[in-house]
Design brief:
Helix content is about 45%, strand content about 15%. The protein is α/β, with parallel strands linked by helices. It has one domain (about 5-285): TIM Barrel (Alpha-Beta Barrel). Helix 2 runs parallel beside helix 11 (about 275-285) and helix 10 crosses helix 11 (about 275-285). Bound molecules: flavin-adenine dinucleotide.
């Protein structure tokens, strides 16, 4: 079974997100990370369900994302899903990439808006919003399609009401959602309730970001306008040894993961920053679940 929508039906799933490394050394490291993840056991005893690979803004990692995802999907025992963004792409470019994915055996795609260029230059391309990619993806093959959800609302949304209506419409056209990271479980469940009121019950995987590097997470939270837990960050910064920092970050991520699972989420998506040790550390703390098969 390699369609993520089907894996979610059997859930809870465990997934991790990678970025495509720039160097041969980075790729080698990622290969070791994937080796470790192949022997992980997810909450409830299941194996790692899938991995996803990010796509650089405006297509800057186009070939690296494509080659990595097709390789993992072919060689590993879990499916790999590419992220795909609208920004800067023509319909022809998107169709060509989708053709490569279809030919390469990929069955899942995460359809995203993408962020406008950081230098403020004009946004070009044939697609403005993630929902517009969904038709192209459906036309290109039998893919299971995921989309992004922002529990604390997308920073470019004019109001919470507008955000939830657009999100409900997008999720209803897709097969599943994955959230931006957040640190308060109530934010996720409030979003789910608001979507239910709009008649949307598409499953949404919560994204959990272990705070390995507080500075980076604070920067990401600033971009996403997500709440940032300063107390936790200070505690991590104050720890002297790397092992202690890792333990504090893993404790916090495990507590959030456990609360989410207890309250019935369909799975957990971990922003692992290309490291398997943090995924193992989090799982070790959840209900005594063994991390190795
Ligand atoms: P959209 O769904 O397009 O929404 C963006 C904004 O437009 C929202 O405010 C929405 O309400 C509004 N909107 C939607 N449709 C309409 C409409 N028809 N008319 C008017 N307004 C509308 N970025 C990357 O560059 N690469 C990645 O690999 C990547 N991976 C991600 C993975 C996850 C799980 C998440 C949560 C985000 C990821 N991002 C990535 C970031 C994402 O691209 C940005 O958050 C981006 O700003 C919006 O993406 P979206 O898919 O939510 O956009």
């Amino acid at each position: 079974m390699t369609k993520i929508s089907e894996l979610i039906e059997q859930g809870p799933t465990l997934s991790v997100e990678f970025f495509p490394p720039k160097t041969a050394e980075g790729l080698e490291k990622l290969s070791h990370t994937l080796d470790s993840l192949e022997t992980l056991s997810a909450p409830g005893g299941a194996e790692l369900s899938f991995v996803s690979v990010t796509y650089g803004a405006g297509g800057t990692t186009r070939d690296r994302t494509r080659d990595l995802v097709i390789g993992i999907n072919r060689d590993r025992r879990f499916p790999a899903m590419p992220h795909l963004t609208c920004v800067g792409h023509t319909e022809g470019e998107i169709d060509e990439l989708l053709g490569d994915y279809s030919a390469g055996g990929i069955q899942n795609i995460l359809a995203l808006g993408g962020d406008p260029p950081a230098d403020g230059s004009e946004v070009t391309g044939d697609f403005d919003y993630a929902i517009e990619l969904i038709d192209s993806i459906r036309a290109a093959g039998d893919f299971s399609i995921g989309v992004a959800a922002h529990p604390e609302m997308h920073p470019r949304s004019a109001s919470l009401d507008a955000d939830r209506r657009r999100l409900a419409e997008k999720l209803s056209a897709a097969d599943f959602g994955i959230t931006q990271f957040f640190f308060d479980a109530d934010d996720y469940f409030r979003m789910i309730e608001e979507l239910e009121v709009l008649g949307c019950d598409t499953p949404i995987l919560p994204g959990v970001m272990p705070m390995l590097n507080p500075g980076t997470v604070e920067r990401f939270a600033g971009i996403a306008r997500a709440k940032f837990p300063t107390d936790l960050a200070n505690k991590i910064e104050a720890a002297e040894e790397p092992e202690e920092r890792m333990a504090i970050a893993a404790d916090a991520a495990a507590a959030l993961t456990e609360e989410l699972l207890d309250r019935g989420v369909p799975g957990i998506h971990v922003y692992c920053m290309n490291r398997s040790d943090i995924v193992e550390a989090v799982l070790e703390r959840i209900n005594g679940v063994s991390t190795k098969t």
